[in-house]
């Protein structure tokens, strides 16, 4: 009888703790370290993603958000599916968000519909970078 009570208690306890742990694994915390990189060269995505992977290992549970903003003439390369395919797969696996600057898309005549779905468009890449910096993101421009 005692074993049945202990087993029942353990089952009930596990039912209530697992959802909480799963929820906490996806929450952002105040002590997370977040990053943003502004680049004008699509070929820099590979070393940027490698850096994100290494920072994720170094930061461990404190690794937060990692965003890349592609600005300038480089946005023309974003619609090249062959070029972007591997970058987008690597970015997804590393938890990196790649953003395209809307102003640059307009300036260089890149149709937003031609961009891969995995890319996000921010209207003003420089403003987006500053807004993230105000939120405490570590930032670098390449």
Reconstruct the topology from this structure.
Elements: H1 2-26, E1 33-39, H2 45-59, E2 63-70, H3 81-94, E3 96-101, H4 102-107, E4 120-122, H5 125-134, E5 138-141
Helix pairs in contact: 2-3
Task: Describe the 3D structure.
The chain has 5 helices and 5 strands, in the order H-E-H-E-H-E-H-E-H-E. It has helices at residues 2-26, 45-59, 81-94, 102-107, 125-134, and strands at 33-39, 63-70, 96-101, 120-122, 138-141. Helix 2 runs parallel beside helix 3. The protein has a single domain (30-141), classed as DsrEFH-like (Hypothetical Protein Ychn, Chain: A). It is an alpha/beta fold and 142 residues long. 25% of the residues are buried. The chain is globular. The protein has a 5-stranded parallel β-sheet, with helices on both faces. Helix 4 (102-107) links the parallel strand 3 (96-101) and strand 4.
